[in-house]
Amino acid sequence: MTISHNLLYIVTIFFTLFQLVFSLNEQMKTTPPLPILPLPSYSQLKWQQREIIMFFHFGVNTFTDSEWGTGHESPSIFNPTGLNANQWADTAAQAGVSLMILTAKHHDGFCLWPSKYTNHSVIGSPWKNGHGDVVQEFVNAAKARGIDVGLYLSPWDRHDSRYGQNKEYNEYYLAQLQELLNRYGGVREIWFDGAKGSNATNMTYYFNDWFSMVKELQSTINIFSDAGPDVRWVGNENGYAGDTCWSTINATSLSIGNASIANYINTGDSRGTNWIPAECDVSIRKGWFWHKSQKPKKLSELLDIYYKSVGRNCVLLLNVPPNTTGLISESDVQTLKQLRGAINTIFSFNLAENCHVEVSGTRGGKNGGFGPENVLDDDHLWTYWAPNEEDKENYWIEFKVKSGKIKFNVVRIQEAIGLGQRVKEHEVYVDGIKVVKETTIGYKRLHRLKLGIVEAHGVRIKIVKAKGTPLISSVGLHFDPFWKPKVDVTSKMVH
Ligand code: FUL
């Protein structure tokens, strides 16, 4: 071989190697950014995506027209002659609900299942001659429709004589927890409230024992209480989360059942080290139990609740109480149908899809896998726009209408919370005019524009402050025909 042959040989090898490295580089995607702790657990992420959960308050109160039973009710008054849990589950399915929670026992102590540890239950009722089990029927109906179940077992018990004696009552309560969590298959949420009898303020609930037992028996369950450990209370029963709402809190210093924590849990804590997102419990009627004299809330009220719960990074726990027949009243069924219909009307169409999307920058450049196209796909968790870290505090994403204008009044923004909740401050501009200046985003933030309906060429979302790089998983521009702002100042907008 001559020298020139050798040279040619070496050049060819170099060229092939170069091509190989180049093509590998082409295929290689940029890595996702590091998470910002704390993170949600697998079960908390599933819970968050449910958006609406249905609550069923049912028991002796249904028959005595009361909210808090005394504990002295005779089981013989519990007689829901037409009870049909399939109708409850059909109502839930129709409302797009994937989890339904039942009051297995409320403060009156009456058990909707035949507990081995008390006679104060369905055993003593004429319903099915004492052979009925509401919890079982509830579970069967839900499972048949692919709906998950949750249970509420009231710690406060106004019937049982052991209440007030710490050891005896905690043993009784734990025994019932074991019955419920062993007997009825998978339970996805368990609901504990901290209420106590005024005559038994010394009663101590052994929450640590209860929580450990629950986790031992049900691996994918979420435990709800004022302060978690998995889901926290939102601090009120109107269904309203704070305008600022972090999924994080510092839980260790919080005591369950103490009203003084209401404000803290309403907004959460940007510096919280525990991921414990909030659930907004509210009833479709005034009371939690069914009362002949009460009617369901209006659609506009329920939509307001939806925007202030789901639209503020929370899950809505909507109570729909069965009546004395054992059915969900037709007026409630119709109201829920309207609510689901309205939510679908508003959110099934995203006007941002008619727009070009521009951004301040993208992690890993155009082909890195973190481009703005990710905010318009169906994955609201694991595909997201990640801005370029260099653009610190000047992150923006803009939607420009391809032709003409878009008409909308709702802006939806979602963070990729699988990597932590990050955004502290954000703003929305419509054709250059600031229309929203708010704080947190979280899993889902919905802004109904105070201006009312706007017609615009472009919308820009600015992330003003965040813990690290913000990760935006979805954006929507929607039209809500049901919403009428109090003052319509559309005419004041300058285009
Ligand atoms: C509270 C209870 O006192 C109410 O009766 C209702 O069950 C509500 C959901 O929780 O703690």
Automatic annotation (TrEMBL):
Belongs to the glycosyl hydrolase 29 family. This is alpha-L-fucosidase. Residues 73-339 form the Glycoside hydrolase family 29 N-terminal domain. It is found in: Secreted, Extracellular space, Apoplast. One of its GO terms (cellular component) is apoplast. Its main location: secreted. Residues 1-23 form the signal peptide. InterPro entries: Galactose-bd-like_sf, GH, Glyco_hydro_29, Glyco_hydro_29_N.
